[in-house]
Amino acid sequence: MNRETTNRIRFVIEDLLPPILRDSALFRTAAKLVWGDHIVKLARFRERAPFLSSDEYEDLYRHHPRVHAGTDNSAACIERIVEEIDGTSVCDVGCGTGALLSHIQAANPSLTRLTGVDFVVDDAAKLDGVEYVAAMIEALPFSDNEFDTIVCTHVIEHVLDYRKAIAELRRIARKRLIIVVPREREYRYSFNPHFNFFPYTHSFLRAVHPVPQKHVCVDIGRDIFYCEEREQIELEKAA
Fold first, then answer.
1. For each of the chain's 239 residues, which pLDDT tens digit applies?
2. Coil, strand or helix at 215
3. Domain total for the chain?
4. Which CATH number covers residue 221?
5. How big, in percent rounded to 5, are the helix, strand and coil portions of the chain?
């Protein structure tokens, strides 16, 4: 299933079904027909978010069914990300299978460094010319301003301390930071292990406060695409 299909399904489930039904035992029963008891595990996972151990966190993600083949990004988001790459070094934080890295690499042959980061890189397709690093987004093992462009797609919604994660992304980005998150509402029962929910573009802008003057935040088919210029911020700090 591709991202475009799941976004159409999400429109029906999130926008057409009333909240009283979405949070009901009736919806849970119907959802269990699709995903079995995993739908209940996800609900408990979110409820216990502040108390989860790192082992519990990793265990759920290792056993979470992969909905999308290759990447969680839609074709429209991939196209926009590729267009916004700036500089010769790129790091994809939360690279997953590495599918987005392959698109970035193909569209930017002049890149001198391409890095993929995830807390588990076992299932990443090892691409030639790409280095893979296992690390948590809240503590990235890189120097300040180490990469020209940082890309982080469909990760922030999974991170409990998302402000610390965003601070780390900003720390290692020299020119540009690109983030993509799903535009979605929170309900008790859902099909993903998300902690953070952004129903509007301005909801996400609050999450990335303070927002620099040079930024873009738009809705691309139920996903929020955000891009900010880091180089200008560094120049203002030095002035």
1. 788 888 888 889 999 999 999 999 999 999 999 889 999 989 999 999 889 888 888 788 777 777 666 678 999 999 999 999 999 999 999 998 889 999 999 999 999 999 999 987 766 667 788 999 999 999 999 999 999 999 999 999 999 999 999 999 999 999 999 999 999 999 999 888 899 999 999 999 999 999 999 999 999 999 999 999 997 665 556 54
2. strand
3. 1
4. 3.40.50.150
5. 40, 20, 40
Q: Could you tell me the two tokens for 10?
A: 């999400």
Residue written as tokens 């292990």? Answer: 193
Q: Domain residues for 187?
A: 1-239
The residue behind tokens 């039904």 is 21
The Cα angle at residue 24 between residues 21 and 28, in degrees rounded to 5: 110
The residue written with tokens 């620099």 in the block is 212
Structural tokens at position 125: 């397709």
